[in-house]
Amino acid sequence: MATLRRDRAAELSAMPVPAAAALINRSVLAGVRSMHIGTLETREDILSALRSLLLAPLLRDVAIKSSRFRSLAMAAMGGLRVRSADADAAVTAVLQLLREIGVDITSAGTLEKATTPLCVAIAQTFLGAAQVLLDAGANLNELSADRSRWPLVAAAHGCSDAGMAWLLERGASLALFDENRLTIAHMLANGAEDTDFCCHWLRRAIAAEPSLLEARDKAERTPLVIAAAIGCAAEAAIATLLELGADPTSFERSR
Predict the structure, then answer these.
(1) What ranges do the domains of the chain cover?
(2) How much is the pLDDT for 194?
(3) Res 252 pLDDT > 80
(4) pTM score, two decimals?
């Protein structure tokens, strides 16, 4: 057995870097997916095997360096497209392992412009994973590199009530806006897929930050103008904004 372990260690140490990077990604994805559907005992076995693999000196070094370009944390979370406690537990365990071996789990990587690890966790309501990221230094208000997305918007786009509440309870700002000066209120007014969710969080957001009601983007559009542009699909959002006191003459200043 000791000889087999030495042979395996030698094999991993001699592996070309591109092959090592591919092995790491496959192993992380396979580990998360297997842990998601496994029993508690098999999850512990899978995590132990993944830990042994990633602690091989070459693989650990490649994992740390490759994640600076493409986030291993986001790869792990992206491997599961389900919202469940088991999925969150699997992702949380793998993120803790990656952090343990020295991988930066909070950064998106230089090749990812449109999101961040915390955005991915929140959008999928992986709140255990989100807490691991927060403990590792993730910023509740960090914008993506292209300034199009931040955690609160990720929760809104994912229609995650739990994600919205989790962020606001921890002090997430309601005053952020993207490169086009679109605020969370604009995003919610634009979200016609789940009208109950959007109207509920429009009320809560504007109650906490009244300036959102008449906030204007670069084109001078308020949330009401955004909702009206969608038409009948956003009737509930329009009614909510008017009930909250939105200025119906704001259309005159938009362009």
Answers:
(1) 182-255
(2) 87
(3) no
(4) 0.89
